[in-house]
């Protein structure tokens, strides 16, 4: 259907920079009148809901080749922020080194959205369902401000309020592999609870990466929780209680209480804070309980 003149005048100008520097220059020139676009799935939802105004300029990042792709470099898996969620889900490198992220993106929206939506868009959203997984994986984010590269962890990004124009240029996940000579093994868990079984916004998301000895003693542990509009955060108190111990009995009860205390969900009409807190705590405890050799056969 053709647009009338009024609609055409309201439509934003679309720009396709060929380099990171050119994109940042456009954003610096136009400020709040311009937004970066990747898959635009979130922006479209916000415009339709009236929660964000249509900008005068859209800076389409799709023509910057260096912002796409998944590769191994310098001891890490580097993911371009323009890489689609579908490509993340089907990546052999991620399946081998970061199956937690593969599981997380598999649970985001439906296939048609994942074909357009990008990992970078989910990260920049700050409360995207992939962010808890990236925090648990100790991922590092690389940004460019037009003159230099800036680095921070996914955990730092989630809790920051950085407003200076900059562009996400890479998401880097450390390559960690099981040592065949060691008795310790890595494990991962990702759980999302929504209002229905599939294609639903999350109420609670939990991501866990850990390492355990043969008897179940936890030698490494990173737990992150988010969901809905809640800023993802590490459950450091539960981690401290469980490290060096087996995930059984009293230890898991203490971890449950620690998550209840530290997880602070953002209120919305769909679920009470107490429901979200208990759900997050139960998901964490159930995932860790299943890692105990004495419980694995019962799960």
From TrEMBL:
Keyword list (alphabetical) reads:
Flavoprotein, Oxidoreductase
Q: Which PROSITE patterns match?
A: FAD_PCMH
Which terms does the record give in the GO molecular function aspect?
Answer: FAD binding; oxidoreductase activity
Concerning Pfam families, the annotation shows:
CO_deh_flav_C, FAD_binding_5
The FAD-binding PCMH-type domain covers: 7-178
Q: What is this protein called?
A: FAD binding domain-containing protein
Phylogenetic lineage = Bacteria, Bacillati, Bacillota, Bacilli, Bacillales
């Amino acid at each position: 259907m053709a647009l009338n003149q009024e609609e055409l005048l309201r439509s934003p100008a679309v720009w396709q920079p060929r380099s990171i520097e050119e994109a940042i220059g456009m954003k610096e020139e136009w400020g709040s009148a311009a937004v970066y676009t990747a898959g635009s799935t979130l922006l479209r939802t916000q415009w339709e809901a009236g929660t964000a105004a249509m900008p005068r300029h859209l800076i389409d990042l799709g023509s910057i080749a260096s912002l796409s792709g998944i590769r191994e470099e310098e001891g890490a898996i580097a993911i371009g922020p323009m890489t689609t969620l579908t490509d993340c889900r089907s990546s052999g490198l991620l399946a081998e080194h970061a199956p937690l992220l593969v599981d997380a993106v598999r649970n985001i929206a439906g296939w048609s959205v994942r074909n357009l939506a990008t990992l970078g868009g989910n990260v920049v959203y700050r409360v995207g369902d992939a962010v808890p997984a990236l925090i648990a994986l100790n991922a590092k984010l690389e940004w460019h401000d037009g003159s230099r590269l800036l680095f921070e962890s996914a955990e730092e990004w989630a809790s920051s309020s950085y407003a200076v124009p900059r562009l996400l240029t890479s998401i880097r996940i450390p390559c960690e592999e099981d040592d065949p000579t060691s008795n310790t093994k890595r494990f991962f868990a990702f759980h999302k609870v929504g209002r229905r079984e599939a294609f639903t916004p999350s109420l609670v998301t939990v991501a866990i990466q850990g390492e355990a000895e043969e008897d179940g003693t936890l030698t490494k542990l990173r737990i992150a929780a988010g969901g809905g509009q809640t800023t993802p955060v590490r459950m450091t108190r539960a981690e401290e209680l469980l490290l060096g111990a087996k995930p059984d009995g009293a230890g898991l009860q203490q971890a449950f209480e620690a998550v209840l205390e530290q997880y602070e969900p953002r209120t919305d009409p769909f679920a009470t804070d107490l429901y979200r807190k208990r759900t997050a705590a139960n998901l964490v405890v159930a995932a860790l309980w299943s890692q105990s050799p004495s419980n694995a056969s019962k799960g």
